[in-house]
Amino acid sequence: MRITEIRQLSVNLRGKLRNAVVDFSQHTVSLVALVSDVYRRGQPIIGIAFNSIGRFAQPGIIQDRLIPRILGAKTETLLSDDHRRFSPQAIARTAMLNEKPGGHGDRSSAVAAIELAAWDLNAKLAGEPAYAHIARTLNKPLPTGGTPVYAAGGYYYPAKSKTTLLDELLNYRDLGYNSFKIKIGGAPLHSDLQRVEMALRATQHPNTLAVDANGRFTREQANQYGSALQQFPLKWYEEPCDPLDYALLAEITRGYTGPIATGENLFSAIDTHNLTQFGGLRGQQDILQMDPGLAYGLTEYLQMLKVAEQAGFSPSQCIPHGGHLINLHIVTALGLGGCEAYPGVFQPFGGYAPQCRLEDGRIFPSDAVGFGLEQKPELKDFINQLTEV
Length: 389
Ligand code: MG
Description:
Layout: E1 3-12, E2 28-40, E3 43-50, H1 59-72, H2 88-95, H3 107-126, H4 130-137, E4 147-152, H5 165-175, E5 180-183, H6 189-200, E6 209-212, H7 219-229, E7 236-238, H8 246-254, E8 260-262, H9 269-278, E9 287-288, H10 298-310, H11 325-334, E10 339-341, E11 357-359, E12 362-364, H12 380-387
Parallel strand pairs: 4-5, 4-10, 5-6, 6-7, 7-8, 8-9
Antiparallel strand pairs: 1-2, 2-3, 4-12, 11-12
Helix pairs in contact: 2-3, 3-4, 4-11, 9-10
The structure holds magnesium ion (MG).
Residues 212, 214, 238-239, 264, 321 line the site of magnesium ion.
């Protein structure tokens, strides 16, 4: 059993969308296929995945560095001990040959796309959904109850716009979401506070509205927002400052009694160690949002979870960034605290397949094999393009 070919397709995110820091319409994502020599009904079994949302496609790193290393490795070194599956760990390790530690740059998401495609391939070889396959591989009970999901968005609307933030959140509520996240930091503090008040009118329970500053605030702004936000029953205050400024985060955390969320821009277990040691976060309260698709894949993510647990964080406090099918399967398999959804945006990758059930704020993966990306209509053409022989 071997991998015969690895393909990469750079896909643009659709639509105009930006937060306080970046314009997502300029973003691309690497869609990757691992083609195996195992055939079923005349077709090779192909593992498919992508490197999450919010960064860029990595065709250069994947084609110049990672693919030659993996295809050049001895076949048996990429297999599990019983030789019945591929080893995502060994594939990621091989992809990283001759790379120095630290300074992840863009290789962490390039490796992630391939490592996650290996999980998809294994689940397809086993003929089961990725969540069931991951749970079984890690000796965890088969999850059945779905996973909590919150609708993220909460955009800025021009003053004369007919649609308001409240309309947007009520629309999410109609879709079946009962927990939300909105942007802050794109307007002066006083108008952001009015937006929070407006958004709270869409919530039915306390602690179901989060706010996200996207890492943009200075010390002064972050602390001002922290003091002002404290009056509201918020689910969390996300990325108040630069994601790598642990000393400032610790200062902000000392002045803010509610939950703080961060981690989507950390890419390794060592990063997680530094965050939990020096960022002032409080075990049993704050939220960790590392995203496997940006951080070398599920293998490294499991190490990150271990580090978090040793620092006093429970799996329920881990809610990965990136509202898409791959993270839905991972969150479900590992019994984490939940996942996000950006209804209708970040296409073709964002959101879930129509076969995934959304009920009372919980989302259930479908029973498609692998991550079920083939069930997502927006991805269909790209997957066809990538996998046609
Ligand atoms: Mg965020």
